[in-house]
Amino acid sequence: VIDAKAEVPLRPIGVQELLPVLQELSGQIVAAAERQTARRGKGVSCRAGCGACCRQLVPISEPEARALALLVEAMPAERRAKVEQRFREAYGRLEAAGLLERLRDFKARVPAGERRAFAMEYFRAGVACPFLEEESCSIHPERPISCREYLVTSEAALCADPAPGRIEMVPLPAKASEVLYRFGDGEGRDAHHFLPLVTALEWTERHRGETAATLPGPKLLENFVRQLAG
Ligand code: SF4
Q: For 169, phi and psi rounded to 5 degrees?
């Protein structure tokens, strides 16, 4: 049982504005799962300075893509230029590996049954997340929910070769990330799917100007928690 409190605006808000609360909620679920794992005698092996998992195809929701783009836009000019350059370099490497077009329109171009194989292809391309600096996350407090949920108890070195069956994850009772992918406007309409983090800036640019649906904050959170619990 997770007993959590959250403050949300009473006024209508979009899912993007709810993200800090959802991140906190997912943090509490992850912390409970870690405690459960510790009771079984296992410890989390993830450490700052180990960025092996940050070379995976990291799934994010559309509101998270917009939030990441805003985060980059708000960075001091020099830092922003550096991060944007890393996004461009990642695209260059993914294009050279023949993966870019499928990534850009991931939902349409990579059928559900082929996604695991595609994710392995992506990992083999060895393209680091543009936010990875010195093998640590440079946006740690604002990282996407899927990054928060990815914790392993297997040897850290195995993450450098995440073949099926080799990695032991901390099992989570519920994944806020997966609810977020299909949450759409918060009332079950217009459900989306995830998109790869590396496409976040380009995706946001393409969808700039689209207005997000809103619901009163408490209602939006209630809908999310219902889906999470369900
Ligand atoms: S956002 Fe941070 S934690 Fe997530 S993949 Fe990128 S560097 Fe790693």
A: -90, 155
Quote the CA–CA distance of 184 and 222 in Å, as a whole number.
14
Binding site membership of 132 for ligand 1 (Cβ less than 6 Å): yes
pTM of the model: 0.94
Encode pLDDT of 73-128 as tens digits: 999 999 999 999 999 999 999 999 999 999 998 988 899 899 989 999 999 999 99
Mutation test residue for ligand 1: of 71, 129, 133, 150, the one with most atoms within 8 Å of CB: 129
Atom of ligand 1 nearest to the CA of 150: 3
3-state secondary structure of 51: coil
H and E: helices and strands count for the chain: 10, 6
CB of 151 shorter than 6 A to ligand 1: no
Q: Distance between CA atoms of 203 and 79, rounded to whole angstroms?
A: 21
For ligand 1, atom 2, the nearest C-alpha belongs to 137
Q: Is 128 in the pocket of ligand 1 (CB under 6 A)?
A: no
Amino acid, single-letter form, for residue 53: C
pLDDT in tens, 131-188: 999 999 999 999 999 999 999 999 888 888 877 778 899 999 999 999 999 888 777 6
